[in-house]
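Table 4 source record.
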Amino acid sequence: MSGSAAKHRVAIAGCGGRMGRALIEATMAAPDCVLSGALARAGSALLGQDAGAALGLHTGVQVLADPRQGLSGSQCLIDFTRPQATLEHLDVCESLGLAMVIGTTGFDPVGLRRIDEAARRIPIVFSPNMSVGVNVVLKLLEQAGQALATGFDIEIIEAHHRHKVDAPSGTALKMGEAVARAAGRDLARDAVWSRHGHTGEREAGSIGFSVVRGGDIVGDHTVLFAGTGERIEITHKSSSRATYAEGSLRAVRFLAGRAPGLYDMHDVLGLKA
């Protein structure tokens, strides 16, 4: 983008959280983006402050709780908050005609339907993981799931920090869906969410999930294909939230001028067939 071209005007929800701070830092560093809004929950100590204060940055953007006021003048909202807050922000984006990048996980079926409905009127990138690397892994898992559909047991192991509130992670579920679809299985039927006590032998065709929560782990995911005499592991490890922030900005660029619709990171990265 040339210096004279208009910049992407980006608002960030949950600006006081770990992901929110990473998004502010990435947006301020991007030459083609400008921070145009910052939202925090009602009662937050950040309200009224400069959005970059915690990072030692001056953004000129005040943290607000009212999404309609906070999104005024923005083109796109990036939201990595909680399902209820994201859906409230979605209503405002829809009414204002703003694009939205949603990285929030843990939606129930009603929330997912609401996002799908809103995408008929505004462009939305919705992905449980905005990392470029993770989305390349999802593509690899499609190939592995197809080739290793028989003769291999599939286990998905994920680890996150102690503050994460949903389990398994949205990324682990997305990986399970990718493998199940490629292997001709039904994740809702074949998933094993927990094991305890006398479980009996592993059921053929099942897809197991294991969850670790502790410390400050940003996000580790491994899909294990265990066969007879060999094992294949496809692993992605995040050491910084910057990877999610950079992927989110790629989604913002993708949405600029885009028609209403529900897109994901495979659309953004050109990974779809």
